[in-house]
Amino acid sequence: MTAPRLKLRERLDRATAHLETPIAVVDLAAFDANATALAARSRGKPIRAASKSVRVRALLERVLAQPGWRGVMAYTLPEAIWLVREGVTDDVLVAYPTADRSALAELGKDDQLASAISLMVDHPAHLDLIDQVAPSSRRAEIRVCLELDASWRPIGQLHVGVRRSPVHSAGQAAALARRITSRPGFRLIGMMSYEAHIAGLGDAPTGRAARGRAIRVMQRIALPELLRRRQAAVAAVREHADLEFVNGGGTGSLAETAADPSVTEIAAGSGLYGPTLFDQYTNWRPTPAALFALSVVRRPGPRIATVLGGGWIASGPPEPSRQPTPYLPEGLSFRGDEWAGEVQTPLVGAAASGLRLGDRVWFRHAKAGELCEHVNEVQLIDGDTAAPTPTYRGEGHAFLG
User: Fold this and answer.
1) What domain range is 346 assigned to?
2) From the centroid of its chain, how far is CA 165?
3) CB–CB of 183/143 below 8 Å?
4) Of the residues 272, 306, 339, which one is the last residue of a structural domain?
5) Closest CA to 50 of 260, 264, 275, 266
6) Fewer C-beta within 10 Å: the chain N or C terminus?
């Protein structure tokens, strides 16, 4: 085991020796270092903290107190309302359109919430739904953000990227901006485009060199196309609305997106925790900050150690990259016929021989905030000490549950 990994294991074991597994931890030194590194990569543009990738209120407050970070990008409207009411922030952009009628009614009745929260729209039907719930004559003005599709469409029906907004061209963005600004009760204050095929796609997938080369070629071609189209769309929309912000990017494309003169702020969150999916990027790799520990409960053979639990699988395509990764001690891997299981996970490798019943194995999750859906609290590690703080789940909130 390398010296840094050995020291990390010893420190985590000491800090959490009094706790029973499963344990989720966030190493504050690594978390703060990642926050500083992300801010340095943003070229002076503020970073909006993506709460989906954090899901711990105390850690959102911690990063927002650091230079270079401003505002929250929430993933549901009820979450945004909760964050504002709890005083975490007075600037929340909801990254996905909402159809939550109860939350929309609450937003429309409260001037403080309406001034602090911006809703995502990409079609007039979103405006219609809001008006059905709370007619414009009887509610506060609603702040809205227009989402531009960032995907790459090089020819015909070929689509590279995620399928989000139907608004792809500058002309379509301008047409929707006209519709929004002509409707009473709405104010168009922002634009957003998330380049998932760049920010969310690692260009060095483990053991897949040919795929990595193809991804790097695609990204070199797709990024300039997006920059031209986004700049044209922002200019077209600004003819109809005085935009407060233009949001783009993510951890995986932060520096490249920050170089776009049309973008005024970046979104990032995963880089604070440093999950394993970001081991597949060549431009920047965060320090692993979030881990979870499980206990060895069986020794089925001399080179097999079985931990209790482990099936904390990440969302996305069902493939090995979505599995958690045994991290400490080094030299552990899954059995190819079992992988991470709901109740037990056999681990093999040289390090398995030295594990005894009750020893801990520390894992890293494939994605950032999804780790917090498995635990009610995370232990904040400061040196050799651990202090618990609740996750969203621990505070009684499963906003997509």
Assistant:
1) 3-22+289-390
2) 19
3) no
4) 272
5) 266
6) C
